[in-house]
């Protein structure tokens, strides 16, 4: 999760020009510093509604400096984000809540046919959704979603992969998209076209160059410190490598995996205490992690964690390690969809495991994904101009 520096609300300045009707508005007499303090303590959904109080309040809420202040505060209270697809309703929902909060707020995702949306991990409160050639960027805190232009391609039959990230150098959100040929041969051909969409910029996809033709793995990518990481393999290799994409320079690099993990799959990419790590899907008494020490030097370290047998805690259930929460606790999610849904978080220091049941989720689930360290954001997404073809 990208960090943002703390700012003093008194150092932020907004234009104090108001029309005559607003001068007589009750809200216009409230000091700026007090307005900011009030807004910072409210849920992002409430902040979004208060944009309609007055033009003055709207200008404050829409200002980038206020968004950064809000993200700074909300990053100290990270939340879980859950994406849920329900069979019989043919709907998808986003649930978010604090680790200690039994209540999870939810928003319905705009419907999509014929398939469900696929979700990238959230970045600074925003999330990217993909279905075939359609893409959305959404703010789960406010319920706002915008549609992106269709991905450019020179091919007739393609399959699209996407990754979402934030470039802290240029303060930009970007979507990285790659196409592969759709059909029996797509698994051996590798990525064909690579392009980037910058939110709020040129409003179109830009083709970029990738010198490393690779086959994408099915695991999720992770954005950390302005770099997107994901697993992939090459045509002449059976084992996988880690690909890094710098969102500022828009360069790809290959990070080779340690020898002792290359043939141990399946495995997944996780955030382990603020570092990129690779682990096996399930855990049964011990958890092996390979952590990147220095990507530029291709340096890795191995950590083996002792955890209790979770089946003794919740019965006959297999789990996947999802990563560490900002508190340092390990998060484990069931491989299946129990009713009601639950997950386990384990405190390594206190050697205590706890079960969190999500009462709101009891329906027949088609798919379910859990994302850690989601933060609330009041950010209003800019409109994207679409062509008739979109």
UniProtKB/TrEMBL annotation:
- Stated name of the protein: F-box domain
Q: Which PANTHER family match?
A: BNAA05G37150D PROTEIN-RELATED, F-BOX ASSOCIATED UBIQUITINATION EFFECTOR FAMILY PROTEIN
> What start and end residues bound the annotated signal peptide?
none
Q: Which InterPro entries match?
A: F-box-assoc_dom_typ3, F-box-assoc_interact_dom, F-box_dom
Every copy of the F-box domain together lies at: 24-73
Q: Origin, by domain of life? A: Eukaryota
């Amino acid at each position: 999760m990208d960090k943002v520096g703390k700012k003093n609300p008194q150092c932020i300045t907004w234009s104090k020009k108001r029309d005559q009707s607003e001068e007589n508005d009750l809200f216009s007499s409230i000091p700026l510093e007090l307005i900011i303090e009030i807004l910072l303590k409210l849920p992002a959904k409430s902040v979004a509604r208060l944009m309609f109080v007055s033009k003055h309040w709207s200008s404050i809420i829409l200002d980038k400096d206020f968004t950064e202040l809000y993200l700074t505060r909300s990053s100290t209270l990270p939340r879980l984000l859950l994406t849920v697809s329900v069979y019989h309703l043919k709907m998808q929902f986003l649930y978010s809540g604090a680790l200690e909060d039994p209540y999870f707020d939810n928003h319905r995702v705009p419907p999509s046919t014929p398939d469900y949306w696929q979700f990238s991990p959230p970045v600074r409160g925003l999330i990217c959704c993909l279905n075939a050639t359609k893409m959305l960027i959404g703010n789960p805190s406010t319920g706002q979603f915008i549609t992106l232009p269709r991905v450019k391609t020179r091919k007739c039959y393609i399959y699209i992969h996407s990754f979402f990230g934030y470039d802290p150098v240029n303060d930009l959100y970007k979507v990285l998209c790659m196409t592969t040929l759709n059909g029996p041969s797509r698994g051996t051909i590798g990525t064909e076209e690579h392009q980037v969409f910058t939110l709020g910029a040129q409003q179109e996809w830009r083709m970029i160059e990738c010198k490393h033709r690779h086959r994408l793995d099915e695991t999720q990518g992770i954005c950390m410190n302005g770099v997107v990481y994901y697993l992939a393999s090459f045509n002449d290799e059976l084992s996988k490598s880690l690909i890094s994409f710098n969102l500022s320079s828009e360069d790809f690099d290959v990070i080779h995996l340690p020898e002792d993990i290359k043939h141990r799959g399946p495995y997944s990419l996780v955030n382990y205490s603020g570092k990129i790590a690779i682990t096996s899907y399930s855990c049964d008494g011990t958890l092996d992690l390979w952590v990147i020490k220095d990507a530029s030097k291709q340096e890795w370290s191995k950590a083996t964690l002792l955890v209790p047998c979770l089946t003794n805690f919740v019965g006959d259930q297999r789990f996947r390690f999802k990563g560490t929460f900002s508190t340092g606790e390990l998060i484990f999610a069931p491989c299946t969809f129990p009713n009601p849904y639950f997950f386990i978080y384990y405190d390594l220091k206190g050697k205590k495991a706890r079960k969190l049941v999500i009462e709101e989720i009891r329906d027949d689930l088609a798919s379910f994904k859990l994302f850690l360290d989601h933060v609330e954001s009041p950010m209003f997404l800019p409109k994207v101009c679409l062509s008739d073809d979109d």
